[in-house]
Amino acid sequence: MKLLLGWKLAIAVAVRGAVGLEYPDCINGPLANSTVCDVTASPADRAAALVKLMSVAEKLDNLVDMAKGVPRLGLPPYAWWSEALHGVALSPGVTFNFTGIHFSNATSFANTITLAAAFDDDLVYQVASAISTEARAFANAGLAGLDYWSPNVNPYKDPRWGRGHEVRDPALFTTTIITGQGVTENLDQTPGEDPVRIKGYAKAFLTGLEGDGPARKVIATCKHYAAYDLERWQGVTRHDFNAVVSLQDLVEYYLPPFETCARDVNVGSIMCSYNAVNGTPACANTYLMDDILRKHWNWTAHNNYVTSDCNAIQNFLPSLHNFSQTPAEAAAAALNAGTDTICEVPGWPPYTDVAGAYRQGLVSEAVIDRALHRLYEGLVRVGYFDPPTSASPAASYRSLGASDVSTLEHQALAFQSAADGLVLLKNVNGTLPLRDVIPFPPVTLTGRPVAIIGHWAAPNAHVLGGYSGVPPYLLSPLHGAELLQLNYTYAAGPPVAAAAAAAAPDAPDGWTAPALAAAGAADVILYFGGTDLSVASEDRDRDSLAWPPAQLSLVEALASLGKPLVVAQLGDQLDDAPLLANPNVSAVLWAGYPGQAGGLVALYAILGLAAPAGRLPVTQYAADYARRVDMTDMRLRPDPAPRPADGRGAAPRRDRPAGESSAAAAAAPFPGRTYRWLPPSSPLSTLPFGFGLHYTRFRARLGVFPTLSFTTASLLAGCANSTAYPYPDLCPFPVTVSVWVSNLAAPQDPGGGVTSDYVALVFAAGEYGPRPYPVKTLVGYKRLRAIGPGQTQAAVVDIKLGDLARVDTNGNRILYPGRYKFVLDVGQDGNGVDEVEFDVTGDEVVLDVWPQPRAQP
Ligand SMILES: *[C@@H]1O[C@H](CO)[C@@H](O)[C@H](O)[C@H]1NC(C)=O
Ligand SMILES: *[C@@H]1O[C@H](CO)[C@@H](O)[C@H](O)[C@H]1NC(C)=O
Ligand SMILES: *[C@@H]1O[C@H](CO)[C@@H](O)[C@H](O)[C@H]1NC(C)=O
Ligand SMILES: *[C@@H]1O[C@H](CO)[C@@H](O)[C@H](O)[C@H]1NC(C)=O
Ligand SMILES: *[C@@H]1O[C@H](CO)[C@@H](O)[C@H](O)[C@H]1NC(C)=O
Ligand SMILES: *[C@@H]1O[C@H](CO)[C@@H](O)[C@H](O)[C@H]1NC(C)=O
Ligand SMILES: *[C@@H]1O[C@H](CO)[C@@H](O)[C@H](O)[C@H]1NC(C)=O
Ligand SMILES: *[C@@H]1O[C@H](CO)[C@@H](O)[C@H](O)[C@H]1NC(C)=O
Ligand SMILES: *[C@@H]1O[C@H](CO)[C@@H](O)[C@H](O)[C@H]1NC(C)=O
C-alpha cells in the first residue's frame, strides 16, 4: 500500500514537472559541425559520432529515462517516457497547455480493448496515425517527447488483470488534469486474449504510430516483455512475481505479439517487464532479451533500444526479486542483459546506481556505449538532430502544429473508434434499436418518457480508460439525451462498487428509491453501469468477476417493472449470466472504455444511429472462474492437476495466503484459459470470445475451395523464395479464403431494415499436432462495412501458415499433417457456423526452430 501511494504521488509530481522537449541546435549549437547533425550521414554513424564526444561521466548521466543531456555539447536533457496508448497522454515527457487553448487537449480515442473489439486493423492504423500526428505537433511545441511507451501487447490471459483493458487510476493524474471540464485518464490497454488478434492490432498500431514513410514519425514501444499480466493479487505483486511458464506456452501464447513487434515490424523500442520469467527478472533475462529478442527475431537492423519498466531494475533488490544485492549490481545486470535505458519513478529511491556499476567494474564502457548508440540512433531516426529546414524526411514532421491537433477528422475518428467497438451481448425480440419508439429525425420522445440511470450516464472521466491525456470534451449519455432532446429523467444509481446493502438491512441505500421513481414514470429504462478504473486498473487486479452487488440488485429491481430495460456496460467484462437469464432485461450493450465520445456513442447506438457490430476480444468468464483459478498460474491448457505440481506460479519467498480462491481450487482440475482451451459449453464460460449480435440478421458463408486436399509441401510451395519469405510462418495459406455475407433484412422490414457492419472471424480446428488439441484457434478476421438490407458482400480473409501450425513442447512451430477445418463465426444470433474441412498429408514441417534456454547467470 505504501508503495502504491508513493508511486502515485511520484507520478503526479513527475507529470507536473514534465520537462518537455528541446531539440538540439544543429545550426548554431556546439554540435552543428558534428556528424550527428549531418543529415547525409548514416544514422549509425551519426549516433556513434555523438557518443564519441561524451566523457564517461556524461555517458553515465544519460542511461535513465530522465536523461540529463550534455550541456557542454548543447545536448539537451531528454525525457524518454511519453505515453500515447489511445491519444497523447499525460506522462513525464508530456504536458498540456493547461492555461491556454493551443495544446490544451488531444484527441482521446477509444481505449485498446474497445478498439480491438472492432476487429478492423485499418481503423487501428488510422487511429494510431492520428495519434502520432498529434504527438509530433506536441513535440514541436516542446510539450512531448518522441518516444511513446505504447502499445501494451501482453495477451489478456486473466480477466482479473487490472491492465487488460489497460486503465490507469485517474487519481494518478487528477491533480494535473483538471481543466475546468473534467479529468481524463484511461488505461484499458491490451487488444484482448488472442495472439492473432493482438498481432494484427500491434502491426497496424505500430505502422500508424511510427509511420510507414522513410523516417520514423515517433518511436513506439511494445510492452511489457514478457509474461506480464498480474498487478497485485493475494499478496503477490508485479514487482515480485515470478511467472513460471512452459516453453510451449511461452512461444505459443505469451511471445507472438512481441515477435510481430520486433521481427516483423522492427518497432523502435521494447519495454522489459517487472516480473521474473522462470526465475530471472525479465530485464536481466539474457535468454529473452538477447537469444530471442535480438538474435532469434533479428531485431538488430536499426540498433533499436530496450527500456525497463519504471522501477523494474530497483525491483531486482532483496526486498522484491532478490536477484541483485545492491543498486549497482542491479544496474549492471540490466545493462549487461541488453536493457539500454532504465526508467525510474521520481521520488521513489533507491535510484539505479549506473555510476556505481561502472566504477565497481560491473559494467564495461563498451556496454554503456552500446546502450547509448541504440538510444541516440533512435533519436536520429526520428529527426531529433535534423534542423527543421533540412531536406531530411524526418524534418518534414517538424511542420506539424496546433492546427493538426484535435482536428475535426480526428474527432470523427474518435467517434468511430467508440462506435465500431460496441458489442451487443443481448437483444430480446429486437428491442434495440429503440428507433420505432424514438423516431428520428426529429428525435423527440413525444410522450415517451425515458429513465436514464447509472454512474456512467453523467460525465465521467472513466470512459477514457487508462493512460489518457486531456480530451477536448467528454461526451456522456446525458449529453446525448440533451442533444437529441429526449424526455428523460436521470438518477445516479449506486457508486460503481458500493457494498451490497447498508448496515441495517432495512435502511434505505440512497439510490434505489430515486432510480425506481425515475423508472416507474418512464416507458423505457436505460441503465449505464459496469466497472471502471476504481475496480481494476494499473496496480489493481479484480478479485471478483461478478457484477458489483449493489448494481445487480438495482438492475434486478428495475427489471421487475417489466418495461424495456437496456443495460449499457462500461469497463471490463463481468459475468452477465444474471442479466442474460433475466427475461425482463431486454438488451445488454458493452462499450468497454470508449474514450471522449463514448457516452454519446452508446446512446446513439441504442437509438439506432449506429449499429453495433464489434465482437468480444476476450472470453466472458463466469464469476466462479475467479475462485477456480489462481492469477499466478500461467498455464493455458486444461490439466487434471489443480495447480502446477511443483508450486510453480507461487510468488518467490512469500507465503500464499490461504484465501477463498486457494481453498476452493484445491481439488478441482485446472479448467484451462481462453477460448482456445475452455470450451464454450463450460459452465465457467458465460459468453465466448468472438461473440457479438447485430441489429439485423446475417448469413455468412465461406467461399468454395478449389481443392480440399493438401500436402505440407504444397502449402509451402509458394514461399520457396527465402528472400521474399525469410520466415516461413508468414507464408500465406495458398488458397484464397473468402467469406460471403448477406444482410437478410428486407427494405420492407420495420424501419427499412438496418445497415450494419459484420466481422468475419475464421477459426481453425481439428486434431493435429500435440495433444491436447485446442477447441479452435483464430486464424483470420475481417470487418465488412455497411452491408445494406438485402445486400451481399464478399471479402478475403488473410491466413498465415504460422497461425495454422502448432507449437511443440520445445517451442518449435510446426505445420502438422491432419484433418483440419476452417470455421466461420461463433454460432450465435440463431445462425450456425459455416465450416470447410480439408486434409493435409505429408511430413511435419518445422516453420520456426526455437532456441532452447540456457542457464541464466
Ligand atoms: C562550423 O563550421 C563552420 C565552417 O567551418 C564555422 O564557421 C562554424 O563556426 C562552425 N560552428 C561551430 C558551432 O563550431
Ligand atoms: C498555450 O496557450 C497560450 C494561450 O492560448 C498560447 O499563447 C501559448 O502559445 C500556448 N503554448 C504553446 C506551447 O503553444
Ligand atoms: C483543443 O485543442 C485545439 C487545438 O489546439 C484547439 O483548437 C481547441 O480550441 C481546443 N479545445 C478546447 C475545448 O480547449
Ligand atoms: C537480419 O538482419 C540483418 C541485419 O539487418 C539482415 O542483413 C538480415 O537479412 C536479416 N535476416 C533476416 C532473415 O531477415
Ligand atoms: C537473497 O539472496 C541472497 C544471495 O543469494 C541470499 O543470501 C538471501 O538469503 C536471499 N534473501 C531472501 C530473503 O531470500
Ligand atoms: C418476446 O416475444 C415473445 C413472442 O412475441 C413474447 O412472448 C415475449 O414476452 C417477448 N419478450 C420480451 C422481453 O419482450
Ligand atoms: C415527458 O414525459 C412526461 C411523462 O409522460 C409527460 O408528462 C411530458 O409531457 C413529456 N414531455 C414532453 C416534452 O414530451
Ligand atoms: C418481469 O416483468 C413482469 C411484469 O411485466 C413481472 O411480473 C415479473 O416478475 C418480472 N420478472 C422478473 C424476473 O423481474
Ligand atoms: C525472390 O524474391 C526476391 C524478393 O521478392 C526477388 O527479388 C527475387 O527475384 C526472387 N527470386 C526468384 C528466384 O524468384
UniProtKB/TrEMBL annotation:
<keyword id="KW-0326">Glycosidase</keyword>
<dbReference type="InterPro" id="IPR001764">
    <property type="entry name" value="Glyco_hydro_3_N"/>
</dbReference>
<keyword id="KW-0858">Xylan degradation</keyword>
<dbReference type="InterPro" id="IPR036881">
    <property type="entry name" value="Glyco_hydro_3_C_sf"/>
</dbReference>
<dbReference type="InterPro" id="IPR036962">
    <property type="entry name" value="Glyco_hydro_3_N_sf"/>
</dbReference>
<feature type="domain" description="Fibronectin type III-like">
    <location>
        <begin position="758"/>
        <end position="828"/>
    </location>
</feature>
<feature type="signal peptide">
    <location>
        <begin position="1"/>
        <end position="20"/>
    </location>
</feature>
<keyword id="KW-0325">Glycoprotein</keyword>
<protein>
    <recommendedName>
        <fullName>xylan 1,4-beta-xylosidase</fullName>
        <ecNumber>3.2.1.37</ecNumber>
    </recommendedName>
</protein>
<dbReference type="InterPro" id="IPR026891">
    <property type="entry name" value="Fn3-like"/>
</dbReference>
<keyword id="KW-0624">Polysaccharide degradation</keyword>
<dbReference type="InterPro" id="IPR013783">
    <property type="entry name" value="Ig-like_fold"/>
</dbReference>
<dbReference type="InterPro" id="IPR002772">
    <property type="entry name" value="Glyco_hydro_3_C"/>
</dbReference>
<dbReference type="InterPro" id="IPR017853">
    <property type="entry name" value="GH"/>
</dbReference>
<dbReference type="Pfam" id="PF01915">
    <property type="entry name" value="Glyco_hydro_3_C"/>
</dbReference>
<dbReference type="InterPro" id="IPR044993">
    <property type="entry name" value="BXL"/>
</dbReference>
<comment type="similarity">
    <text>Belongs to the glycosyl hydrolase 3 family.</text>
</comment>
<keyword id="KW-0119">Carbohydrate metabolism</keyword>
<comment type="pathway">
    <text>Glycan degradation; xylan degradation.</text>
</comment>
<dbReference type="Pfam" id="PF14310">
    <property type="entry name" value="Fn3-like"/>
</dbReference>
<keyword id="KW-0732">Signal</keyword>
<feature type="region of interest" description="Disordered">
    <location>
        <begin position="633"/>
        <end position="667"/>
    </location>
</feature>
<dbReference type="Pfam" id="PF00933">
    <property type="entry name" value="Glyco_hydro_3"/>
</dbReference>
<keyword id="KW-0378">Hydrolase</keyword>
